[in-house]
Amino acid sequence: MAALTQDRDxxxxxxxxxxxxxxxxxxxxxxxxxxxxxxxxxxxxDTNGLRFCGVALESADNTGGPDGALSVRIWxxxxxxxxxxxxxxxxxxxxxxxxxxxxxxxxxVTTNDVKCGRIVRVLSSSEVELKVxxxxx
Length: 137
Fold this sequence. Notes:
The protein is mainly beta. Helix content is 0%, strand content 43%.
């Protein structure tokens, strides 16, 4: 496509909440960390080839359905409570990766480093607040 030679009518949307088609035979729970597998939403996990895409605003049960049979809305920015083993104040500011659909851990602990945000507050020894801005695709 060639460069513009005149004004172009465009639109803008916030993009904080996106609707993503769900991978076949997957269940995504409200509040889950969600990743993308070949363009389809799948529950977060420390799996090679996944990309973090956000936090589920709602649940979506695609059990028995093909890829894309339904969609799930996800937040792509914000701060969310998630599980993190052995959380301490020294974790604040650390970049973390997905372990499963509710758990994160330091990059030195995960295998595939599916980065999902930074810890901004420690709530307890097993729960932190995760800021996903800039990490969700």
